[in-house]
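Sequence only, no structure available. Ideas?
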Amino acid sequence: MPNQASLAAGRSLRIPAAELSYRATRAGGPGGQHVNTSSTRVELWWNLTESAAPTPPQRATLLARLANRLDGEGWLRLVEAGSRSQLRNREEVTARFLRLLEEALRPKKKRQPTRVPRVEKKKRLETKRQRGEVKRLRGRIRSED
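Reply:
I predicted one. Tokens follow.
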């Protein structure tokens, strides 16, 4: 993680580095003796509800879009254990945190409603009519007496 007073998440949000807390723990998984004894897994913790960084509209957006990632007290927790280096894992989890916030704050595109073209409707109905005719002809043969 770069030694900065604050980290930029998008253009409008700067998170003070002091608000982030890191914890190194032992990584699980396969490996030799070195893996089992070194604390390379890094957890990043950030409390969205107590943070002074986001503006009220940004906080509301983040709370809504990150609701399933926050615990009951508003803490966001990210974990990285992909590398054997604690420093590399710390950089990766920080970058992921900033990307997550940037994506959550990005405005959603407004959906442009579209209509099914008339030709496509006609083609679909014609196909249905033909299929119905095939099924009707498979039925019992009735005598015309």
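The CA atoms of residues 118 and 124 lie 10 Å apart.
Hope that gets you unstuck.
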